[in-house]
From TrEMBL:
The keyword Hydrolase applies. It catalyses: Hydrolysis of terminal, non-reducing beta-D-glucosyl residues with release of beta-D-glucose. Substrate binds at Q17, H118, N162, Y286, W387, E394, W395. GO terms for biological process: cellulose catabolic process. InterPro entries: GH, GH_1_N_CS, Glyco_hydro_1, Glyco_hydro_1_beta-glucosidase. This is Beta-glucosidase. Its EC number is 3.2.1.21. The keyword Repeat does not apply. It is an enzyme of class 3 (hydrolase). Keywords: Carbohydrate metabolism, Cellulose degradation, Glycosidase, Hydrolase, Polysaccharide degradation.
Length: 431
C-alpha cells in the first residue's frame, strides 16, 4: 500500500540486529556470532544472541508497523537461517519463519521488501575464504534462488546486498566489523566478488519470478577540507572507494577510473552480470564525510576530518540534511538515465535513550524535506524508509546506540512508542 500520491513510506531493520534466537530453528553460526564472541570487539561485550527477540515477537512488531500505517517494511533474511553452512538445501524451519513474517505483513497491507544479505555471512563460508573468494558469489546466488523460490510470489521488492562498501571497508580493510580483517587495499577483491554476487542474485531472483529487484548502497558526499588540489584528490579517492566502487559497475558496467590500478581485471562477462538492469536504486544516507590529504605514514590516500559546524547525533555523526539533497542530485547527474527510480532505504539517527525524542523528529523532518527538495529538482525519489523501527544491536557499538522509533528495554523486551513514532505515524497518514 502506498500513500495517495504514490510515495512509499516505510521502516527498515536487519536480521542480526533484531532477531536474536541465534541457536534456534536450525540457524547456523555467522561471522557476527564469532566476532561478538571475540573479546574486545564489541563495546560492553554485547552480542546479538537476544537482540530484540524479533524471532519470537515478530507479530508484535508487525502490529506496531500496522499502527504506523507504513506501506512497506524492509527487513533482512539471515543467510545462516536458510543455509546453516552456507551451502546445500534450504533449512525448512528458517524458511518457515520468513514465510510467516511475509504472510503477516501482507495480511496487514504492508509490502515486504527483503534484503538477502545484511552482513551475516555463514561462518563456514568465511572459513572457506569469505568475500575474498569468488566462490562465495556463486554460493550466494544459490541461496538467493532458494529464498526467491519460497517468497517471490509475495515479496514486492528485493535487495540482494546491503551496503557492500561497509563490508569491504569495515569488515575487510580496517577490521572494525566482522570478519575483522585489516587488509587495507588488499581488501578490494571483496568488492568485485560482492558486485558479482549482487548480479548473480539478480539473475537468480528474476528466475524465480521476483517482481522488482534493486540494491541498497550507502552514500556520503565527500567534502574536501580545502580547495587545495591535494585535498580535492583525497576526497575523490574516498568517494571512489565509498560511493562509486559499487554504483559504477552496477549502473554503468565499469569500475571507477580512480581504482583502475588497484582492482584485479574484471571480465566483460562479469561486468555484464553485475550491470543487470534494476527496478529501483536504494540509497542509505546518514551524513557527509570530510577529507584531506593523507598525513605522513598513513597508507590510505586520505585523512578523515571532523565536521564540527553542525549538530551531532548520539553517535557523533554530523546532522546535515542538505547532504542528502546533494547526494541525490550528484547521483542523478553522474548516472543520468542509467539511474533507476530511487528509494531512500535507510535514513535515521541515534540519540540517547528516552521516549521524548524531539531531536529525532527534527532529524527526520529535515531529511524528509531534503528528499522533497531533491524531488523538486528532478530526482525521481519514490520511497523513504526510517532506520529503524526498533532500538537494536548496533554492531561494534553493541546496545549503546538507540536508533528506534520504538524504544526497546533489552532486559524485558518491552516496546514503548517514542514521540517520533507518533510523529512519523502522522506524516505517513497525512495528518
Amino acid at each position: 500500500m502506498t500513500s495517495p500520491d504514490g510515495f512509499l513510506w516505510g521502516v527498515s531493520t536487519s536480521a542480526y540486529q533484531i532477531e536474536g534466537a541465534v541457536a534456534e530453528g536450525g540457524r547456523g553460526r555467522s561471522t557476527w556470532d564469532t566476532f561478538c564472541a571475540t573479546p574486545g570487539k564489541i563495546l560492553g561485550g554485547d552480542t546479538g544472541d537476544m537482540a530484540c527477540d524479533h524471532y519470537h515477537r515478530h507479530s508484535e512488531d508487525v502490529a506496531l508497523m500496522a499502527e504506523l500505517g507504513i506501506g512497506s517494511y524492509r527487513f533482512s533474511i539471515a543467510w545462516p537461517r536458510i543455509q546453516p553452512t552456507g551451502t546445500g538445501p534450504a533449512n525448512a524451519e528458517g524458511l518457515a519463519f520468513y514465510d510467516r513474517l511475509v504472510d503477516e505483513l501482507c495480511a496487514a497491507g504492508i509490502e515486504p521488501m527483503a534484503t538477502l544479505y545484511h552482513w551475516d555471512t555463514p561462518q563456514p563460508i568465511e572459513d572457506a575464504g569469505g568475500w575474498l573468494s569468488r566462490d562465495t558469489a556463486e554460493r550466494f546466488a544459490e541461496y538467493a534462488g532458494l529464498v526467491g523460490q519460497r517468497l517471490a510470489d509475495r515479496v514486492t521488492r528485493w535487495i540482494p546486498i546491503n551496503e557492500p562498501a561497509m563490508v569491504t571497508l569495515l569488515g575487510y580493510a580496517i577490521g572494525q566489523h566482522a570478519p575483522g580483517q585489516s587488509l587495507l587495499f588488499d581488501a578490494l577483491p571483496t568488492a568485485h566478488h560482492l558486485n558479482l554476487a549482487h548480479g548473480l542474485a539478480v539473475q537468480a531472483l528474476r528466475a524465480q519470478g521476483a517482481k522488482a529487484v534493486g540494491t541498497a548502497n550507502n552514500h556520503t558526499p565527500a567534502w574536501p577540507a580545502t580547495d587545495s588540489a591535494e585535498d580535492v584528490a583525497a576526497a575523490a579517492a574516498y568517494s571512489a572507494l565509498h560511493n562509486w566502487i559499487y554504483a559504477d559497475p552496477q549502473l554503468l558496467g565499469r569500475y571507477p577510473d580512480e581504482l583502475a590500478d588497484r582492482l584485479p581485471p574484471a571480465s566483460a562477462e562479469d561486468l555484464a552480470t553485475i550491470a543487470a538492469p534494476l527496478d529501483f536504486y536504494g540509497v542509505n544516507y546518514y551524513n557527509p564525510t570530510r577529507l584531506r590529504a593523507p598525513s605522513p605514514g598513513n597508507p590510505l590516500p586520505f585523512d578523515l576530518v571532523d565536521i564540527e559546524e553542525y549538530p551531532r547525533t548520539g553517535f557523533g555523526w554530523p546532522v546535515v540534511p542538505d547532504g542528502l539533497r546533494e547526494m541525490l542530485v550528484t547521483l542523478r547527474d553522474r548516472y543520468g538515465t542509467a539511474l533507476p527510480p530511487i528509494h531512500l532505504t535507510e535514513s535515521g539517527c541515534s540519540y540517547p535513550d528516552g521516549v521524548h525524542d524531539q531531536a529525532r523528529i527534527d532529524y527526520l523532518a529535515g531529511h524528509v524535506a531534503a528528499a522533497r527538495e531533491a524531488m523538486a529538482a528532478g530526482v525521481d525519489v519514490r520511497g523513504y524508509f526510517v532506520w529503524s523501527l526498533l532500538d537494536n544491536f548496533e554492531w561494534d557499538s553493541g546496545y549503546s546506540q538507540r536508533f528506534g522509533l520504538v524504544q526497546v528495554d533489552f532486559e524485558t523486551q518491552e516496546r514503548t512508542r517514542r514521540d517520533s513514532f507518533h510523529w512519523y505515524r502522522g506524516l505517513v497518514r497525512g495528518e
